């Protein structure tokens, strides 16, 4: 359909004359007027200092014109002739800025003939905040904040913080550990678990995160039948309280790897286990303090059992169980065949070549077998090298009577499973777990025995034969620390 351009233009003009178009144009004009009025009403707070404008001269006027203009203005505005003192000060300051070299330099550099001035900053506050009408309410609000809310908040924080030590363990729990270590210095594993699960962190009166459920009265007695050594009949407080008994049952279930059929108990068990390692560290600290800083000595067996708690909860295994159970996909049904091949520890399994190791774990799929290799490669193997030297002597390795001997210990951490024993098709699944981390007591200790012997000063032909060492020369030994509890603790 063809439309005449002239008619189309007339139609547009008609459309612009409609009431809606007129209303839109009126609205735009009103907004433009309002914006222009706002801009014009803005107060200018900063004025650039211009001495030429103050004297009424053009910018760049010479000194002669400045002096002439200053004389004319002085006759008119000088206070002795009835002029305005403030206006005359402005004129004198502008004259100085244009004639004095120092004042002119300050004006050109800082915008002021007097030099740099201090800058002031302000903040915009609503008018009602500083008005007399609301002054009393504002004062009351400040008093409420600074005299009631702030002191109460600080007091509440202080009251809660003083209940914990620097390791974030309740001070009452620390006193509880000291009390039972004094009462029964010789502790077995079961006794330590009773004391550990009696920590006040798992009691609702001291920890608001603990949830006490009515269903515990029905679910916990069922679990108690599996653990005859809970000591629920003992009357020791607080070890006989319900919270301690519940924590003890959940800890036994965790170490025994028993599945909890109740979801609420599973949540409670996760909460307790997530905090038990911190409590174990606190118990270790208590035994060390009693041993080294008090007269009440803790027996060695007790300290040995305390250190067993850390790998127990890390591996979720009782000490009597096989350490192979900490490997993935290996259960009680696999242990019989593995032990018949004379493999009892993770270290023995890692020493096998890949063909023999695959035969021992033939009940696992290829994917499960790779998981076992990954875990073995993440386990540490420690090698200890020792050396000694006599400082200040020409022969550092000759020990004589009353000499000072320095013992150097070098720890080398390696992966339990060597990468060379991993087949090529499985190496891609491994990260750099086999990288060696060395911890040396002396940063400069790195020379081998041959280099040390080369550096020994040779005995001259006329010198006497040195006396034989009275002490026995220490030998360098490599000790592989592969015991499973230590591995669990290092992990």
UniProtKB/TrEMBL annotation:
Membrane topology: Multi-pass membrane protein
Entry's localization field: Endomembrane system
GO molecular function: protein transmembrane transporter activity; RNA binding
Pfam families the UniProt entry points to: DnaJ (PF00226), Sec63 (PF02889)
Biased segments, Basic and acidic residues type: 420-476
Domain of life: Eukaryota
J domain segment(s): 50-111
Ranges for region Disordered: 420-491
Sorted UniProt keywords: Membrane, Protein transport, Transmembrane, Transmembrane helix, Transport
Cited InterPro entries: DnaJ_domain, J_dom_sf, Sec63-dom
A cellular component annotation (GO) from this entry: Sec62/Sec63 complex
Transmembrane segments: 134-159
SUPFAM superfamilies per record: Chaperone J-domain, Sec63 N-terminal domain-like
GO biological process, alphabetically ordered: post-translational protein targeting to endoplasmic reticulum membrane; SRP-dependent cotranslational protein targeting to membrane
Entries under PROSITE patterns matching the protein: DNAJ_2 (PS50076)
Protein name: J domain-containing protein
């Amino acid at each position: 359909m063809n439309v005449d351009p002239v008619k189309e233009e007339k139609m547009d003009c008609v459309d612009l004359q409609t009431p809606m178009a007129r209303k839109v144009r009126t609205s735009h004009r009103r907004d433009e007027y309002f914006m222009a009025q706002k801009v014009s009403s803005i107060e200018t707070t900063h004025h650039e200092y211009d001495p030429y404008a103050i004297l009424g001269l053009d910018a760049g006027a010479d000194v002669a014109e400045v002096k002439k203009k200053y004389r004319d203005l002085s006759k008119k505005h000088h206070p002795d002739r009835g002029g305005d003192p403030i206006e005359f000060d402005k004129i004198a300051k502008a004259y100085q800025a244009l004639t004095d070299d120092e004042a002119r330099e300050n004006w050109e550099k800082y915008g002021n003939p007097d030099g740099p001035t201090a800058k002031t900053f302000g903040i915009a506050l609503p008018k009602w905040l500083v008005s007399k009408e609301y002054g009393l309410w504002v004062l009351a609000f400040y008093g409420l904040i600074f005299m009631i809310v702030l002191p109460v908040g600080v007091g509440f924080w202080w009251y809660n913080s003083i209940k914990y030590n620097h390791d974030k363990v309740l001070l009452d729990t620390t006193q509880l550990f000291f009390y039972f270590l004094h009462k029964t210095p010789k502790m077995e594993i079961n006794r330590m678990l009773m004391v550990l699960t009696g920590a006040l962190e798992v009691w609702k009166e001291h920890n608001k995160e603990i949830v006490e459920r009515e269903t515990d009265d029905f679910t916990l007695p069922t679990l108690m039948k599996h653990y005859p050594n809970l000591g629920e009949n003992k009357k020791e407080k607080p070890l006989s309280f319900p919270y301690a008994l519940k924590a003890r049952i959940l800890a036994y279930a965790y170490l025994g790897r028993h599945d909890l059929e109740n979801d609420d108990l599973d949540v409670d068990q996760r909460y307790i286990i997530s905090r038990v390692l911190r409590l174990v560290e606190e118990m270790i600290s208590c035994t060390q303090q009693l041993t080294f800083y008090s007269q009440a000595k803790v027996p060695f067996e007790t300290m040995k059992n305390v250190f067993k708690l850390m790998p127990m909860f890390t591996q979720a295994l009782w000490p009597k169980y096989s350490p192979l159970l900490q490997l993935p996909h290996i259960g009680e049904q696999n242990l019989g065949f593995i032990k018949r091949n004379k493999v009892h520890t993770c270290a023995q399994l890692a020493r096998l070549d890949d063909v023999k190791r695959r035969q021992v774990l033939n009940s696992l799929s290829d994917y499960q077998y790779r998981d076992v290799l990954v875990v073995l490669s993440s386990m540490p193997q420690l090698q200890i090298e020792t050396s000694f030297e006599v400082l200040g002597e020409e022969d550092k390795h000759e020990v004589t009577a009353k000499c000072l001997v320095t013992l150097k210990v070098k720890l080398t951490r390696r992966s339990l499973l060597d990468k060379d024993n991993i087949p090529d098709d499985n190496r891609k699944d491994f990260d750099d777990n086999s990288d060696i981390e060395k911890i040396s007591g002396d940063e400069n200790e790195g020379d081998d025995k041959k280099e040390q012997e080369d550096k020994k000063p040779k005995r001259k032909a006329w010198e006497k034969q040195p006396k034989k060492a009275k002490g026995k020369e220490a030998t360098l030994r490599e000790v592989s620390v592969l015991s499973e509890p230590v591995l669990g603790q290092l992990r």
